[in-house]
Specification:
This protein is mostly helical. The chain contains 7 helices and no strands. The chain has helices at about 5, 15-30, 40-50, 55, 65-70, 85-90, 95-100. Helix 2 (about 15-30) runs antiparallel to helix 5 (about 65-70). The longest helix is centred in the first third of the chain and has 17 residues, at about 15-30. The radius of gyration is 16 Å and the shape is flat. The two termini are about 30 Å apart.
């Protein structure tokens, strides 16, 4: 959910850009940018807080990806990517990501976590950092 949805203002394609930034954050870190024990606090944080950089949670995340995720998840739509074309032209080039290949992001499943039935399938292994209880 974007800050604009929380505030119930008119939405446009920049809300989708925010959502992609959230998905990228989760893919890079294994968690959502904002977490809370209740929905009210979560909505407040989405509308008012700045999410952490992915590299604050996973130091091996390249700075270029930090920059892209940060701009995609800007609270203020005027500071967010204004178009999909702008988003695509500021993405790191293959040569920029090749240099950071040695620091590739790899998920590590915590030893104490037990994936739930929803996170398993016949074709892949359980999702890392599920957090859901299998009981």
């Amino acid at each position: 959910m974007s800050p604009q949805q929380v505030r119930e203002v008119p939405l446009d394609h920049r809300t989708d850009i925010y959502s992609l930034g959230v998905v990228m954050f989760e893919l890079l870190t294994g968690r959502l940018p904002f977490e809370s024990d209740n929905n009210y606090t979560l909505l407040y944080r989405i509308a008012n807080d700045t999410p952490p950089k992915p590299s604050e949670l996973r130091p091996e995340v390249p700075e270029a990806l930090d920059t892209i995720v940060r701009r995609a998840t800007e609270r203020d739509v005027e500071h967010r990517y204004q178009s999909w074309a702008e988003f695509c032209t500021t993405s790191p080039s293959p040569s920029a990501t090749t240099a950071s290949r040695s620091r590739a992001v790899r998920y590590r499943t915590p030893r104490s976590s037990k994936p739930c039935a929803r996170c398993t399938s016949s074709v892949s292994s359980p999702m890392p950092n599920c957090g859901r209880s299998s009981a």
